[in-house]
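G., the chain you wanted modeled:
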Amino acid sequence: MTHISLPDGFLWGVATAGRQNEGENLASDTWFLEHTTPSFFTEPSGAACRGYQHWDTDLDLVAELGLNAFRFSVEWSRIEPERGVVSPDALDHYERMVDGCLARGARPS
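Predicted structure as tokens:
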């Protein structure tokens, strides 16, 4: 096996995207479009990977793999499910994700 030397500060990580990973985002315009007839989507995202509920387990896997970076998206329709209405619970959720990354030695981005 060839040894590869990486520069100091090199980030080795994984990434997720809210719509594909979180699932069941009922406030999303995309969710609405997925459930219209006809639809541009072959199938709706549905529960997806349930990443919104299982983020802590996902971050445990990141740490177990020895990764030091985790990129995730903030699903804005969770933050603002209705025009002018901000969800404190959703803000707290994404803050817990950032804290969870840092606690496991992974850079959130």
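Residues 88-103 form the longest helix (16 residues).

Shout if anything looks off.
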